[in-house]
Structures are given as C-alpha cells and as structure tokens.
From TrEMBL, chain A:
It holds the Pfam family GMC_oxred_C. The keyword Oxidoreductase applies. This is GMC family oxidoreductase. Keywords: FAD, Flavoprotein, Oxidoreductase. InterPro entries: FAD/NAD-bd_sf, GMC_OxRtase_C. Belongs to the GMC oxidoreductase family. It comes from Paenibacillus solani. Residues 435-553 form the Glucose-methanol-choline oxidoreductase C-terminal domain. GO terms for molecular function: oxidoreductase activity, acting on CH-OH group of donors.
From TrEMBL, chain B:
The keyword Transmembrane applies. It comes from Paenibacillus solani. The keyword Hydrolase does not apply. Pfam families: Gluconate_2-dh3. Residues 1-15 have a biased composition (Low complexity). Keywords: Membrane, Transmembrane, Transmembrane helix. This is Dehydrogenase. PROSITE patterns: TAT. Residues 1-20 are annotated as: Disordered.
Amino acid sequence: MAKKLPKTDVVIIGVGWAGGIIASELTKKGLSVVGLERGKERVTEDYYMAHDELRYALRYDLMQDLSKETITFRSNEKVRALPMRSYGSFLLGEGLGGAGVHWNGQTFRFLPYDFKIRSMTIDRYGKDKIPPGMTIQDWGITYDELEPFFDKFEKTTGISGEENPMAGKRSNAYPTPPMLHTPSMKMFTEAANKLKLHPYTVPSANLSENYTNPDGISRAACQYCGYCERFGCEYGAKADPVVTVIPVAKKTGKFEIRTLSYVRRILHKGGKATGVMYTDLTTGEEIEQPADIVVSTGYVFNNTRLMLLSKIGKPYDSASGTGVIGKNYAYQVIKGTAAGFFEDQKFNLYAGAGSLGVSLDDYNGDNFDHSDLKFIHGGNIAHTMTGQRPIQNNPVPEGTPIWGKDFKAKSLKYANSVLTVGSQGSSMPFRHHYLDLDPTYKDQFGDPLIRITFDFEDQDRELARYLSDRCGEIVKEMGGQNILKLKELGPYEITTYQSTHNTGGVIMGENPGNSAINNHMQMWDMENLFVIGASAFPHNSGYNPTGTIGALAYRAADGIVEYSKKGKLLV
Amino acid sequence: MSEQEQQSKPSKSDQGQTMSRRKFLTNSGYAVGGVVLGGVLGYLLPKGKKQPAAQPAPQPNENRNFNEALMFFNQEQYMITQAAVERIFPADDNGPGAKELGAAFFIDHQLAGDWGFNARDYMQPPFYVGEKTQGYQGRLRRREIFYIGLRELQNYSQTKYKKDFPSLTPEEQDAVLTAFQNDDVKLSTISASGFFNLLRSSTLEGVYSDPLYGGNKDMKGWVMREYPGNQMSYTNVIEQKFTVMQPKSLRDHL
C-alpha cells in the first residue's frame, strides 16, 4: 500500500523547461505546486569541470542512465523492436532542468505555415500534394495566437538575436543584440547575400551581453568557451531552467521540488486525474501524491509512455488510423549538410557557443515554391560555430582512410580548416510512424519500455538531397574545396547522433478525433490533466523545438490558471 | 607521512620491485603454456639491450607519473594494445603517436571502470540478432570484447605470420588491423570490425581527451592540432583570425 501524502493544488511530472515555466507562472498566481523530478538536483557549481569532452560528450554524464531505462526501435511493423543499448541517434535528458541544461540554446519560432500546414499546403498546391499516409494536420492554433507567448519565453531567457526576414511577425525586438560574428560567419553571410538569400544571426539563449529578465533574474554574458551542447554552462550564461524559471518559482515559497522521485502512474477516477504515484529512488518506497491538477512535462517519450501506462486517452492504432496516444511520432532530417575544405586558411574552430551562427530560411517551411519538388516543407540552413572539440571532430577529405598515417596527417592538417553548412530538415508524420509500449523489454521497475516505429520516407530522402545541394552551393561560394555532400540519406538508424528533436505522441489539434490535447495542452479526455512538451507537436518543423515548447508552456500556464478558477474544458 | 611520499622515497624496495617484476614475467611466460613462449618473452623483454644491473634509485623530487600502471590489462594485453594504437595514430613529423601519448594506459583505465562494464548501457535480455540500423545487440561488455579481440589479434598474427602481433613489422600490423576492419577475419564470438571500431574510437579518445584520464600526455595531442584545451573565455579571439594559444588542461583549472 502506497504512502499517501497531503493533497497539493498542482503536481508537475518532470522539472525541465516546461515544468519550470509552469511552476514559475502558477506559483506567482498563488497556486501550490509540487515538482517531481526523477533525476538529481543540479546547480551551476556542478559545471566547474565542464570542459571535459570525454566525460560529457562521449560518456554522457548529464544524460539518462540507459541501464535503468531506454527505448526500443524498429524500422517498421515487420521487424522485431530491439532496445537502444547505448546512445546514438538522440540523447535523453535527466535531472533538474532536464535536457534544458545541455541544450545549445538555438531559440527559433516555428513558422506561421507550421501551425496551418495542412490547410496552407492544400490551398497552394491542392490535396494531391500530400502523399498517401502522410498525416499532417493543423495544430488548432495560429502563429498570431501564440506570438505573445514566444515573446514571453524570449524575454525570460534573454534571447540574443535580430529580425529574421522570412519568419512570422514579431511584436518586439529580441531582448538582447545578436551574438558576435566570427570570420567564417561573415563569409557565410557574404556568400548568402551573393546568392540572393536572407541570412540572419541565429537567435541565441547564450547571452550576447549581461541581462536581467522581467522576473528580476540576472545572468552573465557568454564567453564563447566552445562547450555548450552536451555540457552544462559554468557561467549560467546559457539560459537553462535552473538559472531562470526554477528560482522564480522557489522564491514564492509555493514550489516544492522533490528530486529522485520517479513518477510511474497518473492516478485517475471517473475521468479525472486524482494525483500521481511515484517511487522515491532513494528508498524504493511507492508514494501517492494527490493533486487537483496534474501536469505532465516530460520529454516526448516519457509523456507518451506515462499516458499509455496510466491508461489515459485512446492508444493509437496504425491499422485503423484511429486513437491518439502515440500518434504522429516525428523526428528531423539532419544529414542534408555540406562541408568544405579550406586549403590555406585556418579558423578558431575551437571557440564558439551552442547558438553561435548565421542561418537562413529561404528553404524552410513554404518560403519557396514546392510545385516541382517531391516534398513539402524544408529546413533551416545554418553555419554554426559551436566549438569543434578534438575527439569528435576529425574531418578528412573523401577517400582518406579512417586510421593510420594518412588519417593522422590529414586530420591534423584540416583540424582548423573545415567549415560546415548544415540544415535542419523538418519531419512529416506518417500513419505507420508511432510510439507504443514494447511487448518484451522492461525498465528498472518492470514496466514496459516505449517502442518507436519509424523510418525515413521518400519525402525525407528528397528533402535531404535538396538541402544538401543548397548547403553545397553556399559552401562553394564561401570558397570551400573538396566539398563533402550527402549522397543518399539511407534508412533511419539509431547508432549515429543526429538530433535530440523527437516530437509527437500526445499531439495537439482542433478536435478529440485527431488529437490528444487542445491548444491549452489540456487532455480532451481528462480536463484536469495537461501534457506539455514537444510531444504536443503534430509534426516537426525545420528548427530547434525549444522556442515553440516554451511558448506552448506559457500559454498552457495561462490555461491552467483559468482552469483552476473555472474547472472546465477550456476550448 | 603520506602514502605518496613513501612511494617516491628512494629505497631498496624499488630494486625489489624490479626483481619481482622480472620474476613475474618469467612466471607468466611459463604459465601461458600453449602460447608460443618465445613470442611472449620476446617482446616483453627488451631485445638487444642489456638490462642494467640495478635501476638507478629515483631522486626525491623526480617527477614520476603514478598513473602509468595497469588497472585491467595484463602485460601481454597492454603490449598488443600499445602496438595497435600506434598503428591507428602513428608517430610522424607532426608529433608523437598514440603510444607515446599514453593511449594504451587510457584504454586500460577506461576498461577498468564504468565504461568497460557498460554500466550505463541497457544490458537486459533477451538478446536477439538485430538489423544494422538497431545498433549493438550483443551481451558482451566492452572489457570482454577487448579481452577477446586482443587475443584474436594475436591468433590471427600467429596463423598468418607465425609471430605475435607486437613482433610484426608495422606493415604486417596494418594488414592485420585492416583484416579486422573489413571483417576478413571471421570470429564466432565478436564482430571483428566492431572490435576494430571500438579500438579506433578509444584510441582517438586516448589521444585527445583531457590528460586527466591518462592519455594525451602533456597535452601533446592537443598541441599537434593547435587545440587550446580548457580555456575559460574566447571572447577576445572569437572575432579574430586563427589564434594559437598555449593549451590548458582541467588541472590548470583547480
């Protein structure tokens, strides 16, 4: 029999970006919030030895311990799903601040096209443009409705940036000016201008200058140390939940964080959530935390798995295309890149910041004509300087062996002389791509793991090749030689790192028939349960997702406060 | 007196250690029985060099690296690893190879800990042969893969050249490693190319990780590629042309 604790107004499952935002906004409005986090507590002082490529980038010090829990993967329903035994394709976060601690900080807004993707695609190209099996749908919200919340997230985090000429309208300028430009960023900008494209500085959560946000939180400027992705920031310069929203919530005295507390079920009765059951990982004890409102703010896989384990919402069935939980799992097409070798030039590639770069959206969303193309949407193209650390960055010209005398000589020669232009291709959902519970493999408690059924489609293959060609044109214009480009996307495989931008599973939409939650992130089937994160995305855009998650979380916070007063469905 | 001070103090026990190490080599050579004795002893003992009658006693202030000892490998495994990493990343005009950089010590130390045990990997059964896209699905842990892989390097060298791997010429060693890389060697227990890839990636880790871990000796791996290591700020150089600076390690940060 589980120990039962006193009831709280709101319980949050997972204290990362979404959980931190909900906690800060709700406690400001006087609600009592308990935050349950399965990982440990984290503070900036933990990153004193942060510049350690082996520990953080290759041994995944900040990531989820896969020995306790992982995911299983298969390309299609005919294949037996097998566990991801070690890290590869994506990296799962864990601990206070979640993956918000080791993100790069690139903070885009999804395009107006993203939120109306189905209707706008049909309007411009006709219904036949959407291939059979592609399950894109409008999000049940418009860019304009979400704009104030993008603005709010950017102010909280102090995003450094400049106007993007090919994106949705902004109500305000970015709170801080753009990051400094390296010589190679200037080369990219010049090349893009010559090609009549529209370059702009990547919007960055690594601060370009000291900044105090509307909550009164002050942070120092970025030092361009070159250790962002996979690392924590020892300066607190990179916006992360631990140095922005969590202290605001704590200061109210209304927020109680319990770390090492693994939520295993959402409890419910008569169509309403009554609280959660979690395991205290320090004692193994099962504990019941009753609450008026439950907010699931985990990563894509955790949010979806928790719904399925708790038997909330109708599980998606690919055969009939009905049900919603697990539907529209999408990813990102990241391999459409090009790298150029610069024979007589060296660059300070060791320096940088997670969001230091210049990008363009001429080939993103529906910013270009797709009439003669065999795909929809596109991707952001960027040249970024995130710090080329030596174990993981050893590019050599095509045909060079991967070890031995020649490898050593060439990898040293080009260690500071290769510039990459990359793309972040969008990912469209398909009827046969989804998440469900694995029938065989279990986690540390004996609960089933989440199972991914996913592969690249023709849409992705065409998109990757197209974006790689566009990247190649820019690298060439920059003066790069022996340009390496993508030849063939190949099947999706789980072993090579690509992107931790997984999406879908508990998606938002216009009605309960095609979505799990409404545009306040409120479950259609359970009005006092909110599910927030990239799990809400019906497809994935050609951008990093965090800006849009932040906006959806701020909007959800308003909705939850309203619900706490009115107590009914908000849509 | 601390343990370290005791160890660095010149004493008779240093001579005693030298003696016992020699005795150990002889014994271990004897113990391996089936393996060709000449080969084992042939590379463990320096060729054509007379052993000094006694090691010179270390001076009190001599800078000895106590980290250069083995946590996991035996002598034979260490010597094979050292020979192999040097072929993967050889000494050349640019600077030292993986051997001098201590990559074999690095790999030994890594295999002795969490990584060698796959402590943070999902190692639960059932184990099935999967698609290539599904990644490693074996039940063996990295330390077991190394254990088997190093022995198979030795076996293959014996079959092909009638010599142990460390005794082969560099060209022959390359041929052996290439055979593993291309899966021309058929093994029943592990994937030859899987082992090779593990060896290759851990060699690069040993060459370029912070010296804290036993490789990248004196930051010479970083110096070769003009990597500055652990610096607190690049704000002053971020807008500048290529700037070379004296590298720093995490030790400098304490």
